[in-house]
Amino acid sequence: MARWCYRHRLVVLLLWVGALLGLGVSASGAGTNYAEVFSLPDTDSKRAYDLMEKAFPERAGDTDTVVWKVDEGSVRDGSVRSRIQPALTEIGRMEGVGAVTDPYGAQGAAQISEDGRIAYAQVTFAEQADAVPKGLVQDVVDTAQDAARDGLRVELGGQAITRVQEPPTGTAELVGILAAAVVLFVAFGSLFAMLLPIVVAVFGVGTGMFGTQLLSHVTDVPELASLLSTLIGLGVGIDYALFIVTRHRRGILRGADPEEAAVTALNTSGRAVLFAGGTVCIALAGMLVTNLRFLDGVVIGTTLTVVLSVLAAVTLLPALLGLLGHRVLSRRQRRGLAAEGPRTETASGLAARWSAGVQRRPRSVAAVAVVLMAALAVPLLSLRLGTVDQGNDDASMTTRKAYDLLAEGFGPGFNGPLQVVVDGEASDGLVTGLEETEGVARVAAVPPANGVTVIQVVPTTSPQAEETDRLIDTLREEVIPRAGVEAHVGGVTAVSKDFATVTGERLPLFIGTIIGLGFLLLLLAFRSLVVPLTAAVMNLLAAAASFGVLVAIFQWGYGLDLLGLGQEGPIASFLPIIMLSLLFGLSMDYQVFLVSRMHEEWVHTRDNARAVRVGLAETSRVINSAALIMVCVFLAFVLSGDYGAAMAGVGLAAAVALDAFILRTALVPAVMHLLGKSNWWLPAGLEKRLPHLAVEPKEDAPPGPTGVPDPHGPSSVVHGFVRTADGEPVEGAAVTLLTPGGRRLDRVISLADGAYIVSVPAPGAYLLVVTATPLGSRAAHVTVVDGPLVHDVELTPGEVDAVN
């Protein structure tokens, strides 16, 4: 497939451009039909809603608020009333509006603040917020705000109003892409190589986003799905293309033709991308086990975007590589290739030194990493799930302004009143009990209708306050049972609390499901019980630490002012499930990329220390670059102006950073050094029964004794260290394996710690030559029998071995 896409690059490019434009035009023409299917069966708030719908079918919908404030005088003044009342009357006549209650009626005195400067009217729609047409909501907003003038402010708040007060779109995505471009340019040193991952990600995210919009017309997809699809699509799209382009450039530098380098890259890193994309989709699908219908559409949108991002990486990317040819290299690399010929990239510098340092002090590295992750996870102990309210909206939005005005005029609890719904007539004892309950500011009973009575209870604290949650529990467990009536506590605040409770109850099942699936995948990939078990523990540690960071910032308020996102509050109830899905999927990518290189080395040498050292040295740079790109993309969503998006962005950025920079490049290799050969243990009986899954085939087939590549790969290796007479490692030494007749079989360059490994095609006698400037050279006959041969080399300045 890679070869076909490379040779028919213009056809592939036109197909992708046509798909993007076609889906874009179709989505623009059809519009969006996002729906929040928010159902919580068998909860107290759902029973309250059902009774409300039975008693007041025209008023069971979402209730929003129009708030106005005068700078001078009173809202009762004729000049104010003459502007506000006609607007409210017009709103009441709109189709889809059930009722409008204003403060100028006989029962409206309570809707005016004590100082007379702030008043509100309640607009009750016939449907819940997610079902109210956006056009109707926009008409309500425009009609109310047209009544404003100098000295008279008019703002609107409520769930339905939020749907039309969307922050500007595109800024976060653009900033994320620009930040990723900087990282890619530093990593590649080439403008064209930098553009490749970004172009691939844009095509994957664009087709995924437009496809999700079209799917919203045939199934229930929440608006959140579009945001999360963009968030995850940009991250994985750029990362997957980065892995493939890195392998492609390495192949060209080794002297391969660009077409062969592209085919090899897709057949190696491309396979790993397919595997990694599959693990992300499986982790996302794990959300389905929670049975929260609200998340089904999120799974559809995000999974579609990931699938299309993977498809773009394995089809569009080879076509683009065909268009660029050698220009995928930097100018310096192209000049070096022309002047010096092919060369092998080796792990050197900081990556190799760090890898050697982890091998020397695995206990110290592991201890520091564990202490750091544990310290970051401590705030998790005070995690409180809930739903943030409009007090966290951007200060420029009318919903935030209305929230602040209501809190100023009527108290913080007014923004989240509770509804005690009684099946029958409310007793005086219940009303009295509610009024006497600590934490209740006001109680107002609505006349019974159809055998149902609704009592509005206004708390003294804000909707997202922990005291409000305790008040709901007190009403349900003490006040209502003591009154001896059948009643249920509903309202937006109660629904939010019930959603957080249900999410918390189902979270263990969800975590167990995705950990179990990840364990099975890694078990098949690496033929080991210890490697997937270690990965599962590391994933849990990364999740705990990242949620600790979230709690410290958004719940405790540390650094929240710097983000410009309002006041602290609970962690959004939906976030743990969504964030864990993405985290487990993405961390699996890094685990596969890291351990697959270690596993390959282990298969060749059966030397665990070397396998871990070489695997870390050769992959840490790419993993850290990929993680840095994701961190930039995720953090950019703080600029979206959406509190939920900012929370998800910060949480995912923290999770990816901790996973890549601490776990994968420090704790995982340190633990693998401590475990030794146990890393690769698998019971013989299980080994026979497990199917073989080749995540990434061998990149190069070494030549056999006749000089013809052996299709079955090398039977063994020679490996060891190149050092000086003083024991210092020699980096950059050329190590060549020859036949007794002098034909070259393999050639490598020693790493920063002096390590080398050359492939041996078959048992027999060979010549090993080691050369390093200015240390001279040394050659020796080596005999390989039935396994890896360890052969250390000592170089002395000026000494040259002569071998017949």
TrEMBL record:
Is Glycoprotein set as a keyword in this record? no
One Pfam entry for this protein is MMPL
- How does this protein lie in the membrane? Multi-pass membrane protein
Name the domain of life this protein comes from: Bacteria
What InterPro entries has UniProt attached to this entry? Answer: CarboxyPept-like_regulatory, MMPL_dom, Mycobact_MmpL
Subcellular location as annotated: Cell membrane
Q: Record keywords: Nucleotidyltransferase included? A: no
Q: Which parts of the chain span the membrane according to its record?
A: 174-193, 224-245, 272-292, 298-325, 365-383, 507-526, 538-558, 570-588, 622-639, 645-667
> What are the record keywords, sorted?
Cell membrane, Membrane, Transmembrane, Transmembrane helix
Give the Membrane transport protein MMPL domain ranges.
Answer: 39-364, 460-681
GO cellular component, as recorded:
plasma membrane
Per the record, the similarity remark reads:
Belongs to the resistance-nodulation-cell division (RND) (TC 2.A.6) family. MmpL subfamily.
Q: Which PANTHER family match?
A: MEMBRANE PROTEIN MJ1562-RELATED, MEMBRANE PROTEIN SCO6666-RELATED
| Protein name per UniProt | Membrane protein
